[in-house]
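Table S2 (text version). Query chain:
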Amino acid sequence: MDIAAERIERLHDLARAAAAAGEDDRAREYVRLARRIAERNRLSLPREFRRFTCDRCDAYLRPGKNARVRVQDGHIVLTCDCGAHARYPYED
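Corresponding structure-token output:
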């Protein structure tokens, strides 16, 4: 694993911890920084990171706190407080 990937993983852990502590602005900055590092180094973000961040407002999503989770017709629908929707397929 190269330095950029390690940095992204570390920022993911920091964003999760900041969101759990209620520091949403700090978590948002960690998400933005991780995305910028991934873009500059042409890396894709890990799946767990992509699933728990909002594409529109860069918030770290915590179901029940700042995100709503619903199951519809073979999809999981995540709705952020900003109104953005993300749909992910699942199989039974």
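Notes on Table S2: The chain has a mean pLDDT of 95. Residues 3-20 form the longest helix (18 residues).
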